[in-house]
Design brief:
With 164 residues, the protein is an alpha+beta fold. Helix content is 19%, strand content 30%.
């Protein structure tokens, strides 16, 4: 089912983040879709360094998504490590579904937005109309119909064994 839906989405219009999301805020504005570099189709929040069978999205990304960062803040964001269990969420964008898919092969297509403690508020555009907004939570896909906002926060830490 996921393969078929992905195939269909490759040949139909995928709504851009600018069409769906206005801002992501915590105590300050973290992401503004109008100021974002490129025209991303994905806004990803993660707190683990393994996605889709081992892709390290945060570790492989080398660019930033927000152009109005000060040079020192850009350098800092590009070198921030991801720490499992620190309670922080890493936020990235992808400009195409193919770029996200290609992470398995080469990597480095993501753009870093921020690393935040949370909770984070996603504020959707009021003129979203009938556009579908898809989200994935722990591997399960959901379709949101006319969302206004969503809150993302780190809830639990689970200790797992990991091969070194």
């Amino acid at each position: 089912m996921y393969g078929w839906e992905g195939f269909k989405k490759s040949f139909t219009h995928t709504p851009r983040i600018k069409e769906l999301v206005e801002t992501v805020v915590s105590e300050r504005e973290i992401f503004n879709s109008e100021k974002c570099k490129g025209s991303p189709v994905s806004l990803i929040f993660t707190n683990i360094d393994s996605f889709a069978s081992g892709c390290d999205l945060w570790g492989r990304s080398t660019r930033t998504a927000m152009p109005d960062l000060l040079p020192e803040a850009k350098r800092s964001l590009k070198t921030l490590p991801q720490q499992n269990g620190d309670g922080k969420l890493e936020i990235l964008t992808y400009n195409s579904l193919m770029g996200l898919s290609a992470e398995q092969l080469t990597g480095g297509f993501g753009r870093r937005v921020s690393q935040e403690q949370g909770p984070l508020q996603i504020r959707f555009r009021p003129d979203i109309g009938d556009k579908r907004c898809y989200v994935q939570i722990d591997g399960e896909f959901f379709s949101l119909h006319k969302p206004t906002h969503a809150e993302i926060k780190h809830s639990h830490t689970v200790k797992v064994l990991m091969k070194v």
